[in-house]
Amino acid sequence: MADGKLQIDLLTREYPPFVYGGAGVHVAELAKVLRDLVDVRVLAFDGPRQEPGVTGFSAPPAGTYGDPVLATFGIDLEMAGSTAGADLVHSHTWYANLAGHLAGLLRGVPHVLSAHSLEPLRPWKAEQLGGGYALSCWAERTAYQGAAAIVAVSAGMRRDILRVYPFVDPDLVRVIHNGIDLDKWHPWQGPEALRIVQAHGIDPEKRSVVFVGRITRQKGLAYFLRAASQLPPEVQLVLVAGAPDTSAIAGEVERLVAELKAQRQGVIWIDQMLPQGDLDAILSQASLFVCPSIYEPLGIVNLEAMACGTPVVATATGGIPEVVEDGVTGWLVPIEQVDDGTGRPLDPGKFISDLSQTINQALSDPVRLKLYGAAGRRRAEDHFSWRSIGARTVAVYQEVLGK
């Protein structure tokens, strides 16, 4: 704190240009606004970076530890060893939680962690990680036991934390929502946007329903693909979906997409992560955005769609109802879920039917679609500014350090 500013180290798996989900977006945007308020160093995975103040750590050679989670712990050890001089460390997701915990012990400084998801509520990861899933759960739990403060990205996330980790003091858990860069995400209808949309095989003259997300159980893509068979045949279905967790779920999605294509035209599957500008163009052109997630602590992707002026149909689970206002910015689909951590619907057939009916209801009312899209943009502007999120985060740092 030589210049009078706090020295904060942000520890994260994801950081540009390697961003795979909402947590990576969060850290990148948070770092930007924090730099006006504190001194920030970012420690990230995926190798060296050119950006000043950012250190990237490379994964150990394949086979070094014999397990990808142990390799993650190897990076965590390097990250913890690179935090000298920090006044406070702030970690994001289980990948970096262990690094934050160890750095806090090593340096004698507070460790704040942000909860973007919880490992015990993603049991399907055992398919992906095998025994490594027990290790990721252990790392997360250990970090929560030692954290000086926990930032939940929604009130729903806060409830999940206190339910899954009952040893956590409720006074330590603060709700600070994710935000949205309103200059980057905005309604875009010009010639360049239309060119981008057409380059991806989308007809801008036709209505479209868009899904954006990783191919993972929690995003509910398989339910949406089953519901999509009940949608109007002239409506385009645009799936921006890649990075499958396992070969099993990749195969399931491939089969369901093939069945849809056999039934109807206008099924467009973009199986890669697109540049932000391309997504902005696709979302801005869409008639409707669909988020069928069965587990979603907040759902930044809904914010991105709303910022583009696109109405949303989303599952009424997790933090989604804190973003999507039912009957104002979109429609929420009810879901009763199995209480075993998976989030699976108690009645999958009913959830699929409710999802298709809600989408059809939305598409049948073009006036309401426009009204809800405009209201979504206003809500993004009024409630999810990164500048206010940065100020609230620094307030947590100051309070923790004051103790």
Poorly predicted runs: none
Please state the average pLDDT score: 95
Q: If you compute it from the alpha carbons, what radius of gyration comes out, rounded to the nearest whole angstrom?
A: 21 Å
Shape, per Cα inertia axes: globular
What is this structure, in a nutshell?
The protein is α/β, with parallel strands linked by helices. 43% of the residues lie in helices and 15% in strands. The strands form two sheets. The protein has a seven-stranded parallel sheet with strand order 3-2-1-4-5-6-7, sandwiched between helices. A six-stranded parallel sheet has the order 10-9-8-11-12-13, with helices on both faces.
How would you portray this structure in words?
The structure is a single chain. The protein is built from 14 helices and 13 strands. The strands form two sheets. The protein has a seven-stranded parallel beta sheet with strand order 3-2-1-4-5-6-7, sandwiched between helices. The model has no long low-confidence stretch (mean pLDDT 95). The longest helix has 18 residues. By secondary structure, the chain is an alpha/beta fold. Helix 3 links the parallel strand 4 and strand 5. Helix content is 43%, strand content 15%.
Highlighted features:
403 residues; seven-stranded parallel sheet; 14 helices; 13 strands; six-stranded parallel sheet; alpha/beta
